[in-house]
Predict the 3D structure of the following.
Amino acid sequence: MEKKLKLSAAAKSNTITYSMVTVAFILIYLLDMMDVLSNSLSGQLVPICAYIVMALSLNLTVGVLGELSLGHAGFMSVGAFVGVVVAGCMDGSPDILRFIVSMIVGGVFAGIAGLVIGVPVLRLRGDYLAIVTLAFGEIIKDIINCLYVGVDASGLKIAGSAEALVLGEGGKVLINGPIGAANVPKLSSFFAGFILIMLTLFVVLNLINSRAGRAIMALRDNRIAAESVGIPVTKYKLMAFITSAVLAGMAGVLFSMNFSTIVASKFDFNQSILVLMFVVLGGMGNMRGSIIAATVLTVLPELMRAFEDFRMLLYSVVLILVMIGTNNAKLKAMIGKYTGKITAVFKKRKGETK
């Protein structure tokens, strides 16, 4: 009986999360259609969706698995540039088909990168894992900076220098080393971002509430106890890590195809720290918190443009205050007290209506 109640509570919580995202999408879409949003905020809608997916996927590694990863932007860059190459090779096909195929292939390649890095790295823990994943993110960035990819009538060509990349008549360069990818097809849209967020929520929430998810959380809480009852550590760690990498790669495709030009330096250490900040401020393992944090912290610098030179200073102060507030026991108790009162009022009214 208790198990059934827990399952129903999880299903109820998931439904609330899906509903919140859907309502937010409808409201923002309507505001955008009515030209209520400024051009700058309207242009941020797709990046916000990409950052939400990144925050949710990293929360799977950091919050649910309990391992600190500082190279999440590396998986995003793999998906971004693979997606650009796939879209370039499918030039002439319907845009929706190009986008879907690019998204799938970008996610698969990011997952392969997650497998390659995860097999040796997940044997490490704590600071060691963080340092190695940080190094992985920088290695991926440097590899892309040395990569020259083009396509012509004979097919896809890859080289290590601009001189070595020889294209036939009508060929075009897709990735041009440190210059990055230019003339990227702008296939992303706010609706596509919403669909990807819902897909990510479906994957992450169902994984968390599954038998595998409970095993992953058991490893997070007490690895020795989990091993003692026969839970295979490597299997479940890889499952969470690769799932997180695939979703990050898909977010990279969405992000890259919102801009006409994309460079590898965009996916550096600062990007990984930014996404980690979304997870920490939203709460470890709290998916709704990650969505809210990613949205607010992406929009906040734009809303503070009126302060000009003091904009980032105020942004930093806000972050510090939020961190102090979220770790203040008295403030949490106060919020819980008023939340409980509001909930009690609604329950009382519901009972009177019945």
Remarks:
- The longest helix spans residues 2-33.
- The longest strand covers residues 148-152.
- Residues 1-6 have pLDDT under 50 and may be disordered.
